[in-house]
Design goal:
By secondary structure, the chain is an alpha/beta fold. It folds into 2 domains: 56-118; 122-267, P-loop containing nucleotide triphosphate hydrolases (Rossmann fold). 32% of the residues lie in helices and 14% in strands. Strands 5-9-8-6-7 form a 5-stranded parallel sheet. The chain is globular, with a radius of gyration of 29 Å. The N and C termini lie far apart (81 Å).
Amino acid sequence: MLELSRGSESYEFEDEESEVLAAHDIIDAERMAERNEEADHRTAAERAAADRTWAFGHIIVDEAQELSPMAWRLLMRRSPTRSMTLVGDPAQTSEEAGVGSWEQILSPYVGDRFEHVTLEVNYRTPAEIMELAAGVLRERDPSFTAPVSVRSTGEKPWTRDAEEDLAGAVAGAVAELTPEEGRLAVIAPRALHKEIAAPLDGVTAGEAPDLTRTVVLLDPRQAKGLEFDHVLVVEPGRFGTSDLYVALTRATQRLGIVHREGLPSALG
């Protein structure tokens, strides 16, 4: 600014025409107000949360099977056109108030005016693991059909009785399954995490575990929607059928099961 001011002093009135304001140089009060108005840097989600009248043209919901009836009511109020894409699997519903069937949830709002597409091909889970998980799925609901796996690894899932030393058995299984490349998930009931983690070096756990680490300790709900090269399921008898199905289907290569208590009938 100082440099520009000195420059104008040297040539003051040298060219009077240059000092004449053109019409486009004039800013009226309305434009001045627009320029001084603070920009709203909030995300669309943040602005929607602050505005009870906010509506969306289209809504995409992932893990939609977990939403309660109250949550569906909220979403429908924000979607006057009922234009939505819902992604989920009722077989994996963990919440008691979650989806039992899409018809049950959607009919009050759109009747039968929705398209239901079922993914029948499984690209993640090998056939050997899916064969085991399919038994759990049938126990969850005989009307559910397991997707067909497109590949096979030749390695069947295995089970190991920990007898009295659960943490030691888990540590031994982790040592066997930990890959040179890739990731291993230990999926166990939250109540057992402290006991299991004690002998494991470098394992990440907690509310927000570091999923980039080689070995991660999760409960079934944390594992939902994720995939790992190898998975070790601990005490499956403590899981409900939905959570057990989720835990069994996270592996892309190998699956092991360690238990001290009895196995559920679908795995026995």
